[in-house]
Design brief:
This protein is an alpha/beta fold. The protein folds into 2 domains: 8-162, Glycogen Phosphorylase B (Rossmann fold, 3-Layer(aba) Sandwich); 170-351, Rossmann fold (3-Layer(aba) Sandwich), CATH 3.40.50. The protein has helices at 17-30, 45-52, 71-94, 108-117, 132-137, 170-173, 176-182, 201-217, 231-241, 245-248, 260-265, 276-283, 301-311, 325-336, 339-351, 357-367; strands at 8-12, 35-40, 56-59, 98-101, 121-125, 143-146, 160-162, 190-193, 221-225, 251-254, 269-272, 288-291, 316-317. The strands form 2 sheets. The protein has a 7-stranded parallel sheet with strand order 3-2-1-4-5-6-7, with helices on both faces. The longest helix has 24 residues, at 71-94. The two termini are 26 Å apart.
Length: 368
């Protein structure tokens, strides 16, 4: 017997936080009034995040598309067809009023299923250069929402709205003082280092070299998210270059922070990659960004995102190949020694924050 509700929606997006967190933000808003199902790959991080929220999780066994024509590509094609058939089955069983997809390979099977079953769907893309799935499959979407105005030229759909990325409402309500209290920090200049949930090796290795100078000599509070894979290696290096780091009490070192809202809201400076969701959350946190885009990101989207921030006067930009302790040290001092510049970057990045993105997207979904 099929499981039906007066209204139900599918939300899909996965693989990386940039696809998952906007999807979760929209799912949270929709779930206040109706049933929401989350479609993703149970081997990815979306499974843990969606099930922790209490959403019924529907698995599609799909991975990223191989870039070369070889046996792996043909095996992937078979898996894609199977994932599409599963998605069609989910649509027929749960009868969603509409589907919201945040792009990426996890969304693709469900979008194909929507086209086949004529189920209305809306897509969102979080980057200045939309991903392959968005560019190819958004033509038949009822609406397409974008994080960046400059992404519009890549979308072949007249029903495009620029909303910014959906972000969690706590970014708007949590104060900097309360964020620091949540982390048991003092009320002084705070710098966060992060490379996304997986960490960034080049950033980690460079920051370790200058950590003592800023934590001990300059008395900065430093929040350092290493990523789970890099934590043990960075911890050993930190013990060598800064043996007193724990006693000094100015460094919080963790592989991953569950409460990234407090981490970012507590920060004055954020050293980060340039994934779109990270940028949206930095903007919502009134922090000055130092951006080091990941050089191997698909379609070069991190560089394009970061260059847009440069155009808007909202960041310091460093190429990954140019990153070294001296370059990073100079960039940090350019903010510490020039509070007007730091405030300028904070204001310009804050100007890019869009707190009503989720509300606008939900309105469009409900209109379907």
């Amino acid at each position: 017997m099929s499981e039906t509700y007066k209204k139900a929606y599918f939300v899909t997006g996965g693989g990386t936080g940039g696809h998952i967190y906007p999807a979760i933000a929209v799912a949270d808003a929709l779930s206040k009034e109706t049933k929401v199902y989350y479609i993703g790959n149970k081997r990815n991080m979306e499974f843990e995040l969606a099930t922790k929220k209490g959403y019924k999780f529907l698995h599609v066994g799909i991975s990223g598309m191989p870039r070369k024509l070889n046996p792996k590509f043909f095996y992937w094609g078979i898996r894609l067809v199977r994932a599409i058939l599963y998605s069609i089955r989910y649509i027929k069983k749960y009868k969603p009023n509409a589907v919201f997809a945040t792009g990426g390979y996890v969304s693709a099977p469900m979008i194909f299923a929507c086209i086949i079953t004529k189920t209305p769907y809306m897509m969102h893309d979080c980057d200045a250069m939309p991903g392959l799935v968005t560019r190819k499959l958004s033509k038949r979407a009822k609406f397409v929402s974008l994080a960046f105005e400059k992404a519009k030229k890549f979308i072949q759909n007249k029903r495009v709205i620029v909303t910014g990325n959906p972000i969690r409402p706590e970014f708007q309500t949590l104060s900097k003082d309360d964020a620091r209290k949540n982390l048991e920090l003092k009320n002084k200049i705070t710098m966060t280092v992060m490379g996304g949930s997986q960490g960034a090796k080049s950033i980690n290795n460079t920051v370790v070299e200058v950590l003592k100078e800023f934590a001990q000599d300059k008395n900065l509070q430093i929040i350092f998210q290493t990523g789970k894979k890099n934590y043990d290696e960075i911890l050993e290096k930190l013990k060598l270059v800064y043996p007193a780091w724990e006693q000094d009490g100015n460094v919080i070192l963790k592989p991953y922070f569950e409460d990234m809202i407090s981490v970012l809201k507590a920060s004055d400076i954020v050293i980060s990659r340039a994934g779109s969701l990270s940028l949206s959350e930095i903007c919502a946190s009134e922090a000055a960004p130092i951006l080091i885009p990941y050089p191997h990101a698909a379609a070069n989207h991190q560089r394009i995102n970061a260059k847009y921030f440069v155009e808007m006067g909202a960041c310091i930009y460093i190429e990954d190949k140019d990153l070294d302790p001296n370059k990073l040290r100079d960039s940090i001092y350019s903010l510490l020694d020039n509070p007007i510049k730091m405030e300028y970057l904070k204001q310009n990045s804050s100007y890019l924050a869009k707190f009503d993105a989720t509300e606008k997207i939900v309105e469009c979904i409900k209109s379907l």
